[in-house]
Specification:
111 residues, mainly alpha, two-stranded antiparallel sheet, 7% strand, disordered C terminus
Length: 111
C-alpha cells in the first residue's frame, strides 16, 4: 500500500470509521485530488475545529518524509534588493550581470 492510501485509510478510520473506504478512494481518483487538496477537504468536513497547518505538517512529516522539507517552507524568501549591498563593487556587479554575493554565498539571480 502506498503512503497516500495508508493516509486515507488512517484518517477515515479515526474520524469516520463507518464510511465505505472504496467509495472514498474512487472519489479521490475521480476528482484527481493530490494529498494537500485531500487533507484540506477532509479536515474541512470531518474536523474543522482542528488546526489544519499542524495536521498538514504532521502528515507530511510522518507519511511523506522525503517531501517534508519541501513543504516546511513557510514564507517566500526575501527578494534581493541592490541596496542591500554595502560594497559598491558588488552592487555594480549585481546590477550589471545579476551576480550577487550575500553572506559569503555566491549565486546567480535569474530575472
Amino acid at each position: 500500500m502506498n503512503n497516500y492510501a495508508e493516509l486515507v485509510k488512517d484518517l477515515y478510520g479515526k474520524y469516520a470509521p463507518d464510511v465505505d473506504i472504496n467509495e472514498k478512494f474512487k472519489y479521490i481518483v475521480d476528482n484527481d485530488l493530490n494529498v494537500d487538496d485531500f487533507v484540506k477537504e477532509f479536515y474541512g468536513k470531518y474536523a474543522p475545529e482542528e488546526n489544519l497547518q499542524e495536521k498538514q505538517d504532521y502528515i507530511f512529516k510522518n507519511y511523506f518524509p522525503d517531501q517534508y522539507n519541501v513543504n516546511t517552507i513557510k514564507s517566500k524568501p526575501k527578494e534581493i534588493d541592490p541596496d542591500d549591498f554595502e560594497n559598491t563593487q558588488e552592487k555594480i556587479l549585481f546590477l550589471k550581470i545579476g551576480l550577487g554575493k550575500v553572506k559569503s554565498q555566491t549565486f546567480l539571480v535569474i530575472l
